[in-house]
């Protein structure tokens, strides 16, 4: 989904504006709906968007966007804690750790922001459930963090969400797709319903120029933890 504050644009978007992002999204939905109509009966195309939850008003922006465009589905994702990106770079991640007052606090903030989306938006797909692991995969989960993970999994399962198996982790050097093994172990230890039994396989491919991102994922192959 487009972001609504200039300060939330990433360095790679330095030539963009809030309006240009909104215009791009509008063009995306228009073209997607055109293709949906053209291929009706031959391909089941769904038109959706990935969420953000950056500031207090973000959830309302998601609701407004879904209503305005009558989107078929949402991927509920969190990329920021305390308004700082947690997956863009190691430097930004360390800034987020500092502002949060430590890794455990950062993890709790991430899963609280995710929980807010799950409760208020109920996205059809839970996006990269453990993105917070991107730059801290060796960090042990505290009891408080585990409790929030259990809460979020339970909430998503209860309303019927799909859980994304996201291969973007390969591009950042992680050993497997999201969710990582430590998240699966939390579920297995607590036997939370059927958890990830309804997966959505996604590459998180934002770019096709040169085919590099998608090709990298395909070349490395999927390493999915057994459920």
Structural notes for this entry:
The protein is an alpha/beta fold and 227 residues long. The chain has one domain: Metal-dependent hydrolases (TIM Barrel), CATH 3.20.20. Helices cover 45% and strands 10% of the residues. The protein is built from 8 helices and 7 strands. The chain has helices at 18-38, 58-69, 90-100, 103-120, 143-159, 168-171, 181-190, 212-220; strands at residues 48-50, 73-76, 80-81, 84-85, 125-126, 162-166, 199-202. The strands form 2 sheets. Strands 1-2-5-6-7 form a 5-stranded parallel β-sheet. Strands 3-4 form a two-stranded antiparallel sheet. Strand 1, helix 2 (58-69) and strand 2 (73-76) form a beta-alpha-beta unit. The longest helix is centred in the N-terminal third of the chain and has 21 residues, at 18-38. It is globular, with a radius of gyration of 17 Å. It starts with 17 loop residues before the first helix and ends in a 7-residue tail after the last helix.
């Amino acid at each position: 989904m487009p972001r609504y504050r200039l300060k939330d644009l990433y360095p790679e978007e330095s030539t963009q504006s809030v309006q240009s992002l909104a215009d791009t999204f509008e063009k995306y939905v228009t073209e997607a709906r055109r293709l949906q109509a053209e291929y009706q009966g031959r391909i089941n195309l769904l038109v959706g968007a990935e969420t953000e939850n950056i500031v207090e008003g973000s959830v309302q922006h998601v609701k407004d966007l879904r209503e305005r465009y009558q989107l078929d589905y949402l991927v509920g994702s969190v990329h920021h804690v305390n308004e700082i990106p947690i997956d863009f770079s190691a430097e930004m991640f360390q800034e987020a750790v500092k502002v949060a007052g430590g890794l455990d606090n950062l993890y709790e903030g991430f899963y609280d922001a995710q929980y807010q989306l799950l409760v208020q938006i109920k996205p059809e797909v839970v996006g990269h459930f453990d993105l917070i692991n991107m730059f801290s995969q060796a960090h042990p989960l505290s009891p408080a963090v585990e409790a929030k993970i259990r809460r979020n999994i339970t909430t998503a399962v209860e309303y019927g969400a799909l859980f994304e198996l996201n291969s973007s982790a390969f591009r950042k050097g992680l050993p497997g797709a999201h969710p990582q093994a430590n998240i699966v172990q939390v579920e297995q230890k607590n036997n939370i319903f059927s958890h990830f039994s309804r997966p959505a396989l996604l590459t998180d491919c934002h770019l096709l120029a040169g085919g590099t991102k998608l090709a990298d994922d395909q070349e490395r192959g999927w390493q999915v933890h057994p459920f």
